[in-house]
């Protein structure tokens, strides 16, 4: 085949080879941070995960979707129920125990007033010497 002719089998034009082409070239200085992976970073993580869904059959994809939406719905329902239950328990305990706590506080205040009255009438040491008041 003559130089410059087109080889129909390869689709590439054959060129003459000189001895200059056979000498090894000096390697070019590469930048320190050059990565060949830059071409692969064109797609996002979501796009990669979406591409992976094609590996699984339709039934597996539907089951995983149902499971994930059910889990999210269940978590929301559990959160809503726990909020309502906490409110009912807190408000009920406040309504039930507040009168008891107020009555105990009132009894303590009456006791302090009696001790103070005795101390004023009988002197500072008389309230302690008598002991607890009798009912």
TrEMBL record:
Primary localization: mitochondrion
Question: What InterPro entries does the record tag this protein with?
Answer: Tom22
Cellular component, GO annotation = mitochondrial outer membrane
Stretches of Basic and acidic residues bias are at 22-31
Key word Kinase present in the record?
A: no
Task: List the GO biological process terms.
Answer: intracellular protein transport
The ranges of region (Disordered) come to 1-40, 115-135
Which regions are flagged for Acidic residues bias?
1-10
Membrane-crossing residue ranges in chain numbering: 85-104
Where it sits in the cell: the answer is: Mitochondrion outer membrane
**Its membrane topology:** Single-pass membrane protein
Task: Kindly state which keywords UniProt assigns to this record, in alphabetical order.
Answer: Membrane, Mitochondrion, Mitochondrion outer membrane, Protein transport, Receptor, Translocation, Transmembrane, Transmembrane helix, Transport
Q: Which Pfam families did the record assign?
A: Tom22
Q: Which family does it belong to?
A: Belongs to the Tom22 family.
**Would you tell me the protein name for this molecule?**
Mitochondrial import receptor subunit TOM22 homolog
């Amino acid at each position: 085949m003559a130089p410059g002719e087109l080889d129909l089998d390869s689709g590439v034009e054959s060129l003459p080879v000189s001895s200059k082409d056979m000498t090894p070239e000096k390697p070019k200085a590469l930048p320190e941070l050059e990565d060949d992976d830059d071409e692969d970073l064109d797609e996002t993580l979501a796009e990669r995960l979406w591409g992976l869904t094609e590996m699984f059959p339709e039934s597996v994809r539907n089951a995983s979707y149902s499971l994930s939406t059910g889990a999210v719905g269940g978590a929301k329902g559990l959160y809503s129920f726990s909020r309502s239950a906490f409110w009912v328990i807190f408000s009920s305990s406040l309504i039930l125990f507040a009168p008891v706590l107020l009555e105990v506080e009132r009894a303590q205040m009456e006791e302090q007033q009696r001790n103070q009255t005795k101390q004023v009438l009988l002197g500072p040491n008389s309230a302690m010497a008598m002991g607890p008041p009798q009912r």
